[in-house]
Design a protein that fits this description.
This is Molybdopterin-dependent oxidoreductase. By secondary structure, this protein is an alpha+beta fold. The strands form 8 sheets. A 7-stranded mixed β-sheet has the order 5-9-3-16-13-14-15, sandwiched between helices. It has a 6-stranded mixed β-sheet with strand order 11-19-18-17-12-31. The chain has a 4-stranded mixed β-sheet with strand order 20-28-29-30, sandwiched between helices. Helix 9 links the parallel strand 18 and strand 19. The longest helix is centred in the C-terminal third of the chain and has 28 residues. The protein is globular, with a radius of gyration of 27 Å.
Length: about 800
């Protein structure tokens, strides 16, 4: 079994292991002949073009943009969660020296005053009432950011506070305040109350009858806290008014064309006059899929006739984007004595906050993936999302599957304990595989090595227990629970080990037209063949710009590849979310390159076809800047084939279509691909102080084909740490009485640092999905699912406590 990489210090990654060892499952190998000899093609750990710039601090993020004579914009936000706006007085703000404009709802230029990803229910600026703490109410443009802030503080708003809706009980009670009156969206017809955004049931078989056959039944109520994406680069952008009456917007986002579709109507401009260019993105994780400052900056720029830059500080950022849906989940499972699961019932309630954002799609994911990677024939599932006065929630890495995985994996441990079975062996006994029929009626038609992933994480040697004991007086306190707080000295520290596995869909689902566009140009520049790739894909740190160059090298046989900046001058690439970009936009780049290659070969046949019969009879490839036969014979140099010609194509590419889920039964082929990851967590817990140290988080994941093994490793480890964060520290605290956010800062909202990061050994399987480009599988989200329940399982194993909520806090362990 091949192994690469080795740890270099505390918390260092241990590299990857290939899927070639004894007992490894088999899958169709990925056949790559075209371009396989070209350096820097797929399968290599090509370095990121922006990597050195980022680690040296020289990379230009959107917050670094500058324009001569630009103004600074600022957003005034509501200080209460639910209130009638009686009046807004901007006189004093407008009189502030250096202020160029103050805008409120009444200053919006068109009748289109709302926006939204699916349901246009989000006001550009609040009108009549505010529905959540931190809602935008007014805008200021000034010649200095502090001037803009001081002027905004002078705006007087008279609020009449209203009762707040904060949970399912208050949202659906008789006479409950309606968050949105007179709803007319397409979901309203199948929900029981206007404060329910969307409902998706899934019913298959007869769960009640199956429960009667069970020898053991376990149930549980689970609570998942509100997690923030916590990207380090705050929301920011620069809007520049243009001479043609339009606007050029440079912004950090996840989906340029979705932004454009929402921005242009509000500005009253055709889409071709709103020209968007992606600027440097400092992380996203779903939090940039909705609009933040985009419309605001454009409004101020068009009003003042000057460039306007908006940069949120960290406090503003917590209010400026959506978060992960907090959830309350109830599950029931049954099993026979021999360990076979008989049935599953569950109810998932997601808090969508004040506006819909991506809640309908999150509901679809939560319900359709709620069964986990297991074979269960009889299910009764319901998932809903609520409108409340809590902060809006939407897309975040894992997208509804994270909350469900936390609950169903806790249930697996309960069932195993009730049957006196090993928790891993119990999971393996019930694990889905290729050919499994899901509760939605969809058959899994690609490798699903769930049992193998579990075997691999369990087979790894455990790290030494209480390593700090052997060090004696020289022990590093960072290795102990509590770390540098120096509160633990080994008393009451207990080891725990836990396992979890999850399933995540890849790509947009439920019948969405999920496509991407790529423009590829091949030409000779200074005597060298060069490929130019242009897409609107948002590079948010996932490494798409690296992979696109690798694909172009592979398909066109050239080493020189230029990646054009992403903008709206090329067709849509869809969102950088749902683990879809390498699959879909990578597929579009591959498709465009293949067509460019055929055009190049046509030129070659036209010019040189009479000189060698292979031009007409052989399979021709582009390798190392030459046209070669599949036998390796060189027919011509690309430079001679192209000469002064350029081949330039812009093409769309789509994956297989999906279907909407039936609104009564949940049946339908709703997803295009599934990804799987398993974790083993090893923790040490100070049971007296309630402190947790995660020692190791081992991962095994099937990636289909690793186009860039180094990037694959980074994605898996990054997702693992994000799951660790919500397990033991990350939660936005919302006051249940006022619906106001209590901790909008990195002082009080904690995220893992390098000192919290354990060793993360990664086991990579490459079992090709025959339906996907190169056999690849989307990888970014799956590790975020199972790391959380694995850590919780390990803490339960150490303490014997039930621990049915995230994050686990010291008081949950000590009972104080």
């Amino acid at each position: 079994m091949a192994t690469t990489g080795s740890p270099t210090g505390p918390g260092a990654p241990t590299g990857t292991r290939a899927s070639t060892g004894p007992g490894a499952p088999t899958g169709a190998p990925t056949r790559i002949s075209q371009g396989s000899q070209t350096k820097g093609g797929i399968g290599e750990s090509t370095l990121r073009p922006d990597g050195v710039l980022k680690v040296t601090g020289e990379f230009a993020y959107s917050s670094d943009m500058w324009h001569e004579d630009m103004l600074w914009g600022h957003t005034l936000r509501s200080t209460v969660a639910h209130a009638e706006i009686r009046s807004i007085d901007t006189v004093e703000a407008l009189a502030t020296p250096g202020v160029y404009a103050v805008l409120t709802y009444d200053d919006l230029p068109t009748a289109v005053k709302n926006y939204g990803l699916e349901i246009q229910d989000t006001p550009v600026l609040a009108h009549g009432r505010v529905r959540h703490h931190g809602e935008p109410v007014a805008l200021v443009a000034a010649d200095h950011p502090e001037t803009a802030r001081r002027a905004a503080a002078k705006i007087r708003i008279d609020y009449a506070e209203l009762p707040v809706v904060t949970d399912e009980a208050s949202a659906t009670a008789p006479g409950a305040p309606l968050i949105h009156e007179n709803r007319d969206d397409h979901h309203i017809g199948h929900v029981a109350h206007p404060n329910i955004v969307h409902r998706q049931p899934i019913v298959r078989g007869d769960a009640d009858a199956a429960a009667a056959r069970a020898d053991v039944i376990v149930s549980g109520d689970y609570v998942f806290g509100m997690q923030d994406q916590a990207f380090l680069g705050p929301e920011s952008g620069l809007a520049v008014p243009a001479e043609d009456g339009g606007v050029d917007l440079y912004v950090a986002t996840q989906w340029l064309h979705s932004d454009l579709r929402q921005i242009a109507p509000v500005l009253g401009l055709p889409e071709d006059k709103v020209r968007m260019t992606l600027s440097g993105v400092g992380g996203a994780f779903g939090g940039r899929e909705d609009l933040s400052m985009q419309i605001h900056a454009c409004l101020l720029a068009l009003r003042t006739g000057k460039p306007v830059k908006i940069v949120y500080n960290r406090f503003e950022s917590f209010f400026g984007h959506v978060h992960r849906h907090p959830a309350k989940l109830w599950y029931e499972h049954g099993a026979t004595r021999d360990g076979k699961i008989t049935h599953m019932k569950c109810r998932i309630v997601l808090d969508g906050g004040a506006y819909a954002s991506a809640s309908p799609a999150v509901v679809g994911n939560a319900s359709s993936l709620s069964v986990g990677p297991y074979v269960i024939e009889d299910v009764d599932i319901e998932a809903i999302a609520l409108y409340t006065n809590n902060p809006p929630c939407g897309a975040m890495r894992g997208f509804g599957a994270v909350q469900a995985c936390f609950a169903y994996e806790a249930q697996m441990d309960k069932l195993a304990a009730a049957l006196s079975m090993d928790p891993v062996e119990f999971r393996q006994l019930n694990a889905m595989e290729q050919g499994t029929l899901l509760p939605t009626g969809q058959r899994v038609d690609s490798p699903a090595p769930v049992a193998e992933l579990l075997r691999r994480v369990k087979a790894r040697p455990l790290p030494p227990e209480q390593q700090w004991l052997a060090a004696g007086e020289a022990a590093d306190v960072r290795a102990l629970p509590g770390g540098l707080s120096n509160t633990t000295h080994g008393e009451g520290v207990v080891r725990g080990v836990g396992y979890a596995v999850g399933i995540k869909n890849v790509g947009f689902s439920e019948g969405f037209d999920d496509y991407s566009t790529a423009r590829v140009r091949l030409e000779v520049i200074n005597g060298v063949p060069v490929a130019v790739v242009h897409t609107a894909m948002a590079e948010v740190g996932q490494g798409g710009v690296t992979v696109h160059a690798q694909i172009a090298r592979t398909e066109l046989g050239v080493t020189q590849v230029t990646i054009q900046p992403a903008d709206t001058q090329v067709g849509s690439a869809g969102s950088t979310s749902a683990s879809r970009q390498t699959y879909v936009t990578g597929g579009a780049v591959k498709h465009a390159c293949e067509n460019v290659r055929e055009k190049v070969l046509e030129i070659g046949r036209r010019k040189f076809g009479t000189y060698h019969p292979a031009w007409a009879t052989a399979e021709l490839l582009l390798e190392g800047g030459k046209v070669v036969t599949d036998g390796g014979e060189v027919l011509a140099d690309l430079v001679d084939v192209l000469e002064d010609e350029a081949v330039d194509l812009e093409l769309e590419w789509r994956h297989r279509p999906t279907q909407p889920f039936d609104l009564r039964t949940g049946q339908g082929n709703g997803h295009v691909q599934y990804s799987f990851a398993a974790h083993r967590a090893v923790v040490e817990v100070d049971t007296e102080l309630g402190l947790v140290k995660v020692i190791e988080l081992a991962v095994a994941q099937d990636v289909g084909k690793a186009l860039n093994p180094l990037s694959v490793l980074g994605q898996i480890q990054g997702g693992t740490i994000q799951g660790l964060g919500v397990a033991v520290m990350e939660e936005i605290i919302v006051d249940p009485k006022t619906a106001k956010v209590r901790n909008p800062s990195f002082t009080d909202y904690l995220i893992p640092t390098i000192l919290d990061t354990p060793t993360i050994p990664v086991d990579v399987l490459e079992l090709a999905d025959a339906h996907a480009p190169y056999g690849l599988r989307g990888i970014g989200e799956a590790p975020t699912l199972s790391s959380t329940p694995a850590v919780l399982a390990a803490i339960r194993n150490a303490t014997g406590l039930e621990l049915n909520r995230t994050p686990v806090r010291p008081e949950h362990l000590t009972g104080t």
